[in-house]
Amino acid sequence: MKNLLSNLLVPPPSPPRLSAQRQRVEIKSAREIEIMRQAGRIAATVLKEIADRVEPGMTTADLDAYAEQRLRELGATPSFKGYHGFPASLCTSINNEVVHGIPSHRKQIRAGDLLKVDTGAYFQGFHGDSCITIAVGTVTPAAAKLMQAAETALYKGIEQVKAGNYLLDIAGAIEDYAKSQGFKVVEDYTGHGVGRNLHEEPAVFNFRTHDLPNVKLRAGMTLAIEPILNAGSKYTRTLADRWTVVTVDRSLSAQFEHTVLVTETGYEILTDRSQV
Question: Does 6 reside within a domain?
Fold first, then answer.
């Protein structure tokens, strides 16, 4: 698995290893950034609509069919469908499923579930990538705390984004907040650059590490920042379908992700659902 790029829709043949290879990071032009704004807006719109329509009794396949229809209506194609053989437009991961859950007519959504929904919109040659966790009906206080912590951790990381800062500024902010709330950061999967390709350099870690270069942020970088927090162990395993990743101890997991543009003075969230 290349540089632990996560939501990397490639099932690892073996446990991922860190790589210290040189990272080549693409800087987007003003024209490319404007296209990425549109791609991000499409992904945000679809996720917002899904969050509004989820209810107990639906299946994850129902959500996937809706997402694909809406992505295409909005002028995009699904980033995930067919990517390294992934069969759907959404990743739908429930409760102890961490990432890469495959939508299915057999997987019914129930009240009390924590549902992670991840999607990508490919528009005019560029991708927008985003993930939300949805509380289906009334969830337990512990589940609600985990979900809130994962979302807050994302924004703690985003607050560190500006030209001149470093990737480990993002990682440290996420890790420190997660630990302060009593949760574990999943280390097997990370964020990534995003643009012409769904997964680009650099790997955007959610925890401090010296195994990769601590890349300096420059205006025009576009990053998918996506912390995953577990209520129990940080360790994961992949199921027999070679896609669905679960916690080893069956504890709950939550994730949020935004595509973020680095600017000279800070950041711009390209998948901001409050703007659609």
Answer: no
